[in-house]
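Hi Y.,

Following your request, here is the sequence exactly as I used it, all 263 residues.
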Amino acid sequence: MADDLLSQQPLALMTAPRPSLNRGVIGANTEALLWLERFCRPEQPMAFAKTRQGGPGQGGGLEAASLYLWGPPGSGKSFWTQAWAQASAACHYVDLQDSDEALAFIQLFDQARAKTWLLDNLHKAVESERLEATLFKLFVRSAETHERLVVTADRPPLQSLLRREDLRTRLGQGLIFELQELSDSEKLQALRNRAFELGWMNQPSRPDYDSLFRFMLERLPRGLDRLTALMDAADSRALALKKPIGLNLIRSLMEGPIKNASA
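Below is the corresponding structure, written out as tokens. Let me know if you'd prefer a different format.
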């Protein structure tokens, strides 16, 4: 019965694997993600990626109080901030598009402290004057408490739809990076990495399932969260049916509501 329910679950509702640093693919975002690591654990040597000459791992401290990461859907803003929230006890993650999380952030702000705030989906803050006011108070307070801010949004700070000019100005005074969406080859490698984690192959560089992955990239919503969720569902179904992972199995999971999932 559980397996039948799994086969009918829409792709958009499948639970993606929890974001983690070892599952991420950096792509063209090396410098931005080095700075994100620096904000999330400034007291430790850079371990997430190799530092470059003059990069954030070369200095003694942070050069800005805030880091602003922006980009289109699928560029990894939520993935990387959630992954760091899992990896570092110093980080406190708030999804501003979740009304309950945003309300809790506003209500508990005066008592709450974090070494680093990871504020995801800032563009949703335009829906709340109270939220904008709280964000501005956090900027002001951080000058005394040395709390650090990492903010993500869908556009640069000066182009944001925030009502408060003073908040846009503060955001524009920190470090700003545009996150680039992964290329097709980088997404292919991310799917290989997940296949390796699931035990489909013994090396993450092997091309054993590349034709299957290319089919998925061509026929399905291209967000890695949904594609890896489909891989996990396929893995569970293959184990239940004692069948190998292959195109027929993926097609069976794509039938019905799955094939109509939006991008």
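The beta strands are 66-70, 91-95, 116-120, 148-153, 175-178.

Thanks again,
Q.
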